[in-house]
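Annex B. Sample input.
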Amino acid sequence: MSITRKMILGYIILIFIPVLGFGYHYYTQTYGNLTRQFVESRQKILEQAYANMKSDFIRIQSVQRLLQYNPYVTDYLDGVYQTDADSVYALIRYIRPLYTQSLFANPEIESIVIYKMKNRVLPVTDLFRDQSLLNAQIEEKVEHLKPGKGLWIREEPEAEKPDLIYYQHIYNTQFTERIGLLEIRIRNSLIGNFYAAAGVEGNWHAFLLSPDGRPLNEGEAASALDEQTLHRLGQDDSAFFINRKSIVNGINIDELNVRVVVAGRAGEVFYSIKQRELILVTLIVLLLVGLSVAYYAMASTITKRILRLARFMRTLNNDNLRQHIIKHDKLDEKDEIGFLTATYNSMVQRVDELINNAHRAELRNKEAAYMVLQAQIKPHFLYNTLETIRMVAESNNDREAADISFWFGKLMRYSLSSKQDVTTLERELEMITFYLKIHKMRLQARLTYEIDVSVEAKHIACPRFILQPIVENSIVHGASAVLRPVHVRLQVEETPEEIRIRIEDNGPGIALDKLLAIQNQITNGSELRSEGEESRGIGIYNVSERIKSFFRGTSRLNLESRQGEGTCVTIIIDKGEAKNESIDRG
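Annex B, continued. Sample output.
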């Protein structure tokens, strides 16, 4: 299978199908969660609306307690007042304001009437009526009410928003005798407010169900709900449910002995959401298809060039190396495939050159190796030559030549024969002695030196050649630069914390600007570029860096100088770190 088909198949299997499958699954899960959350939220709203209506019921029922515990009302109904004048006075002075206050505090109340049960009580049409005017069915229902209990009755049971009537008996002050029946008529605005709080508006409808689940107004319910939902309402008493056609929330109103159901058509409720989701899904599919086509076009252009290069490389062998020529689109060389092609061409060209020059290169390498072998001088040949010169000088009684040959031989053997960069301070001081003796032989009276060592130098490990560059500076820039004699003093001493190696001379010193440049180089590690002091600065800088690297801790190199008075270089070795290094490098 070609790489193009593999890329297309991989895209479909690994990207296209999983994206669509995941998108559909995610959409269904999201829609299901959304609808459930919506139904649950409406159920909570319905329960809150019922809680508010219950508080209204309690507030309205409190009118009975207000009248029951008012002595003027109970005395009036109990026939305590002997004359009509006393009854009228109590009615106007104490009872009617109480009625007015109750109606004002409860705007849902349409009227308050008390049916009197004693004949001697003065009737008042709008407040106190004779019990004979009470409906017989109502009288039968309230007959068995216990003290403190009331009864709510729907005046029109089949109406969507029925008027409500509340009945409760009023007893005498000793609660031994019924003296009246309180009737409170409630406007249908109470149920209307409940429906409004429950969200019954627009496409939502409210229905009252009997305790057996039968709609009280079957015609209106049938026009708004389908048969499946109506059947489920009769069989299922769950608080809420949702199916493909309807969304139903319900709650029992114990005071009215009914069940309120708020229902809406799912298609109408989620129409806008479904429409937007359909548009979104369509856009995602179109975008995915468009991107797929663009991906295919881009991938095909890449794979075609790779396939051309692969086909060309399959035709190559050891005897057939040629460049891959791109006949079109010079811009191809700017991307990775063009870079690979150009690199391949360069490689082929280079391989061809290497094959053509292989034999000549091999011959030149053999010739160069032979010449190197011929020109090589072994270190022991140099040592033997110096030893021969010393022996000839001694045989001729030339002590000075013999000493110089011996000292120089020691220096060369120390420089060339050691395989490590670590030595001891004793060995380093010995080589400095030979070095100073050679220069003393050359400069005679113009150079004097002094070496004062007060430490066990053979137990102190140190890098090689940390003293020779400093002593060389004292001679080259000191004794060789002035005509007067120059004295070089090397002193090694120790304190409980440090070992100090002090090398000083009384030469011409260093100019202030040069001194500051060298000190800055030692402290900050910056490169020195001044021509006059370049060799001195580099030598001291190298020694300083080697001391810091080898001894570590606070080990360092200090440089002091006064122009015309001399120069002093002090190497300070941290004894604690030096001891550790001696053990480690031991």
